[in-house]
């Protein structure tokens, strides 16, 4: 009988392409690919900050630029649309790109360059991204904003009108029922 030597590695000695490979090598490599892919997805998901907003109120997307870094500029997008660009100044220099949906509702906070949206609408729900450049490098901050109504409820009184408020709608729906 041929002598067998134990090895801590899952590969047989010699060139990998010229010798038949055991099935466990295929499974090992497959699981390795799945593991690495899962790490990449998890890292992407961990990098997204979840924000909740209330219809009609305000929400702030914090940039959190380290004190040791000098802010140079930022470009904000919502979903795939450009929203606003910001450069340093007192107050910050802001160029609004989406002039229809956000006119009069965006503010860049002086010291932090964070984005604030006021008078939230249901359609503000989405994926926001800030591409930030500092003197030390570039970073992308990701946010998911979910806007909901403050009072999603159904109020029913004997023979009085019913007031129905649903999440996802901007205003209450009045329903008058006759008995």
From TrEMBL:
Alphabetical GO biological process terms? T cell activation
TM helices/strands, residue ranges:
24-42
The protein's location, in the record's own words, is:
Membrane
Q: Kindly state which keywords UniProt assigns to this record, in alphabetical order.
A: Glycoprotein, Membrane, Signal, Transmembrane, Transmembrane helix
First-listed, main subcellular location of the protein, grouped into a coarse class: membrane
Q: Report the superkingdom from the record.
A: Eukaryota
Q: Does Membrane count among this protein's keywords?
A: yes
Looking at the UniProt record for this protein, which Gene Ontology cellular component terms does it annotate, in alphabetical order? Answer: external side of plasma membrane
Q: Any keyword Lipoprotein? A: no
Q: Which PANTHER family does the entry link to?
A: SIGNALING LYMPHOCYTIC ACTIVATION MOLECULE, SLAM FAMILY MEMBER 9
Name of this protein: Immunoglobulin domain-containing protein
Species this protein is from = Chrysemys picta bellii
